[in-house]
Each structure stands twice: as structure tokens, then as C-alpha cells.
Amino acid sequence: MPTSSYPHAIGFDDVPFDRAGPGPVGVVGAVFARERLDGVVSGHVQRDGTDATAVLIRLVATSRFFPQLRIVFLQGVTLAGFNVVDPVLLHQALGLPVLVVARREPDRERIRRALLERVPAGARKWAVLERLGPMEPLGGVHVQRAGLTRTQAEAALRQWARHGKLPEPLRVAHLIAGGVGEGHSRGRA
Asked: What is the pTM of this model?
């Protein structure tokens, strides 16, 4: 599949939050049309909850950008602590490929223990991660994918990683989320 197959993309990140505090956590989606930031979608998920997949489906499917979108990027499979997104279900519901990207390979054993020992609905969340399998190194990052081949994932990374190794929709979603949550963006995007 040529890289032009992904001219419109959305990337999601969560707003910085107090890990000890309860309640909803903001989620930001940065929508790109080729080189241009075309829009932003936002919503909330519960900290350590179970609603992340449903919220992302709603944010994408009800947005005015949905008809043009060709790929969804996620910065890891969790939002708001351990609110696990199911990339396969997201792909099936939206009919769009989903590419999960992380700078480093996560410590799966540490995540498994945390989910099973300390997180509500942890066994169900761990089952989603087990079905996905470990992240694979690709293009200087680690990825998991739903609805696209390794070759297509590599093409999407090449197309969208413009200012570093992260796809631009993820980088910008991270910056917007930081600005919303803390009054300014900070840290590496």
C-alpha cells in the first residue's frame, strides 16, 4: 500500500493528570490532513476505567473528520493510567487501521502484575494486551497494529514521522494535551 494511502490521520494522547486523584481524564485527538493540522477532538475517560475504546470510537465516528480519516495512531494502549484501549475493536468499529506507537518496549511482566494485582477489571484488561502480543520494533519505535501489515505500518511511520520518530498526529496531540492540562506543553513529544 503506498504511503499516499494515509493522507488523513488522527493521533490520541491523554491530558496530564493527578495519578492519585479520582475522576475523568481528558483525551485529545489531533487530526491531520497531509501536512496541516486540520482539527482537534476531545473527550474524557475514567482514570483506570474501562471506557477508553468506546470513547475513542465515539470521538472518531461522530467527528466531522471521520469520512476522510485513513489511520488512527495511539501513543501506547492505555489512557488515564490503566484504561486499556482495544486496538482490534477500535479497528473493527471504525474500519480504519490502528497503529500503536511507543518509544520503548513496555515491561509486559510489570504491566501484567499491576493489572492483575491493583487495577479494577485488570484480568479483562490484561486479556486485551495478551491478544495483541508484544510490541515489535519498527522504524526506531515499538508498535502494535490492527488492520495493517508490518509493511503498511512501516510506510505509515515513514510518512508521518516528520520531527523525530513519533508520527506527527501523536506528537501534536501530546503537545495539545500538555497545554490543556498544565497551561503549557512540556517534555518530549
From this structure: 0.93
